[in-house]
Design a protein that fits this description.
- The chain is of the alpha+beta class.
- It has 8 helices and 13 strands.
- Strands 1-6-3-4-5-2 form a 6-stranded antiparallel beta sheet, with no helix packed on it. A 4-stranded antiparallel beta sheet has the order 7-13-9-10.
- A hairpin with a 2-residue loop joins β3 and β4.
- The radius of gyration is 27 Å and the shape is elongated.
Amino acid sequence: MAATFDQIASRVKQQLLGYTRDQASITYITSPMTATDTTFMVDPDTVTNISKGLVEINDELLLVKKYDRSTGTVTVMAGLNGRGVEGTTAASHTTNSIVTDDPMYPLTRVKEAINDTIQGLYPDLWVFGDFEFTKIAARYEYPVPTEVEDVYKVTVNTIGPSAVWFPLSSWRFNPDASTTAGQVKPTPTPTGKTIQIMRDFIVPGRAIRVEYIKKPNTMTLGTDDFTTTTGFPDRYIDLVTYGACWRLLPAYESARLQQQAIEATERAPLVPTGAGANASKYYMALYQQRLAEERTRLQRLFDSYQTFNA
């Protein structure tokens, strides 16, 4: 089993913050809370670890108005307007969920960067799918699934005991087929995509297999398995991690510009201007190197029709 969405997000945060990172200011909730609660309970002993303003619980960002040191009761700012802020979604949270004060890299932003990286891998890297249909006499065009982005290879199951799948050399993928019936085309294509078989030497009733290329799926739930959900092999996980870091690090540079004058002066010798941008370039180089490696590997592992037929 490959890593889950939450596990990959943790890898990205460790890359960004370092394995010997500064201790975050955290507490934890002591009773369940719903998506509509405007107060919640945290551990009284550690409630002072959070402050007024932005806090994170799981994937949600909240705005804190005040808290009670004796009871651990935390009040959300502006009622429900303080729930699910910064583009996050208000959600229910279980007892012992960690509350992080002003997170440097909110989990929602990390997961967005991961999914952006997964989507950006296509068309350099792709996922394979296959679809079979039966040859019908006098029929030239057949619908294929909506997810088909391009056709990689078409084969037909030949007659005889060997049952060899013979590669077809004459076919055409039509990504813009008509979806409505008309006088010229009385039978519409429901998906808007078809495969056209040019030569009609195939015996009716034989199976035709279309191997196609499709985009990877993105992950939604924290428990989503990388390989099962995206269709990519688990060896791409480090590639996705580097890509997410490259996308997130420039935000560090803009945040640094907002430091108060005295603090910025004190930090300047330790964290020089451009440090975030340089780190982003470093991860981008790692990402591009791994992408080139996997693109070459993919092209070598899966023969096209021409090399298969040779």
